[in-house]
Amino acid sequence: MSAISLKKKEEGQEPSDAVEETVKVWDPVVRLFHWTIVAACTLNLFILEEGKYWHRITGYVVAAAIVIRVLWGFVGTRHARFSDFLPTPRRVMEQILDMIDGNERRYLGHNPLASVMMLLLMALLAATALTGWMTTLDAFWGEKWLEKLHGTIANGIMVLAFVHAGAAIVESWRHRENLVWSMVTGRKKA
To answer: Which part of the chain is the Cytochrome b561 bacterial/Ni-hydrogenase domain (predicted)?
Structure first.
């Protein structure tokens, strides 16, 4: 019996089937990382002026968030750990074939394709932070190839972020649960 059902029973109410049971999946560190990255990418891609003070500060925040998230991937809660969602080629192929067959399995944590996306985005974010920092060094000051690389990676992040958001909407519809809201509350249906 869920905590909601127990509370209703204690209050003399019958538990309702209309109340959907949920479980904690995303801990505060994972959620804070996710929304920090969303805010930082929005700021640096669409609002802040490239190369200026607040653009750089936002990049450093992203770099710090990545370091924390990588560490949390080894010591964090169950669904935050890399060991919980490491996307092997076999797992990815199984998910793709299941999607084609219409028998896609629901995952409580990250599914294999989402895991690939998350790891790819983290790598690109790290590369963007690194190349952005490098542009501030005397050794690379004014190097157009580095600025171009930094911008290209940032644009790649923007494209993948839109694919990621679209996939979250499609998966929310397919599995009849709001995945965006679960990243706010930390809870998914049981």
So the answer is: 25-186
Tell me, yes or no, whether 129 lies in a domain: yes
Give me the long-range contacts of 88-95 (CB less than 8 A, separation at least 24): 88/112, 92/116
Q: Which domain holds residue 36?
A: 23-184
Tens of pLDDT, residue by residue over 12-28, are: 555 555 567 999 999 99
DSSP 62-124: HHHHHHHHHHHHHHS-GGGSHHHH---HHHHHHHHHHHHHT-PPP-SS--HHHHHHHHHHHHH
Considering its fold, how many domains does the chain have in total?
Answer: 1
Least confident of 31-40, 105-114, 118-127: 105-114
Cα–Cα–Cα angle for 67, 69, 75, rounded to 5 degrees: 110
Phi first, then psi, for residue 107 (nearest 5°) are -110, 140
Q: What is the pTM of this model?
A: 0.84
> Closest Cα to residue 67, out of 122, 131, 134?
122
Is residue 189 in some structural domain?
no
pLDDT at 102: 85
Residue 125 lies in a domain: yes
Kindly list the distances between the CA atom of residue 36 and the CA atoms of 14, 59, 110, 183, in Å, as whole numbers in the listed order. 41, 11, 19, 12
In a domain, 176, yes or no: yes
